[in-house]
Amino acid sequence: MAYELGPKKKLEPIKKGKRLYGAIVTLDSGKRVYMAYRKRSEIYRAGEARLGEAIKKGIAAWAMDDETLNIMRAHSIKVVGVFVRDTGDRYVTHIDNYYDKTKIKVLNYSARGGSLQRFLPLQHFTFRRNTSRKL
Questions:
Q1: Angle in degrees, CA 129, 57, 91, rounded to 5
Q2: Longest alpha-carbon distance in the chain
Q3: DSSP string for 70-96
Q4: How far apart are CA 22 and CA 125, in angstroms?
Q5: CA distance 115 to 65
Q6: In 3D, which of 115, 100, 119 has the Cα closest to residue 47?
Q7: Torsion of CA 49, 88, 25, 46, to 10 degrees
């Protein structure tokens, strides 16, 4: 499933308090996509010391807050993703993947002041490298 995040029309910031979590991007086609803002270091590794090992084992994942996903679903947003702030890379997937119990892991961090999180392994995303990035 390929998702092209080409020229965008409009950004609607998604905030909780003062913290910016991401934005709803309206593409020229009219399609709306939620993009969470993350750093590469925030890829979930399930205890693996190295990201490469977590990727090999298929456990490297992007987490999204359950409440945010439910809000996006209520707004009929079908595609969600992660914009990696430090590299400019993009990962996109269909929102239904975050609700497929055969693909996700759910962890509840509310006891630590967090929230219910859904973790979707990287292999369920379409990856777009930032082509302007210097390697």
A1: 25
A2: 42
A3: HHHHHTT--EEEEEETTT--EEEEEGG
A4: 17
A5: 7
A6: 119
A7: 0
The pTM of this model reads 0.86
Displacement of CA 7 from its chain's centroid (Å): 19
Query: Over the stretch 54-80, which tens digit does the pLDDT of each residue have?
Result: 999 999 999 999 999 999 999 999 999
Amino acid identity of residue 93, one-letter, is T
Tokens representing residue 125 in the block? 């995303």
Q: Is 70 exposed, middle or buried (0-12, 13-18, 19+ CB in 10 A)?
A: middle
- Model confidence pLDDT, tens digit, residues 86-115: 999 999 999 999 999 999 999 998 777 778
Which amino acid appears at position 37 of this protein? Y
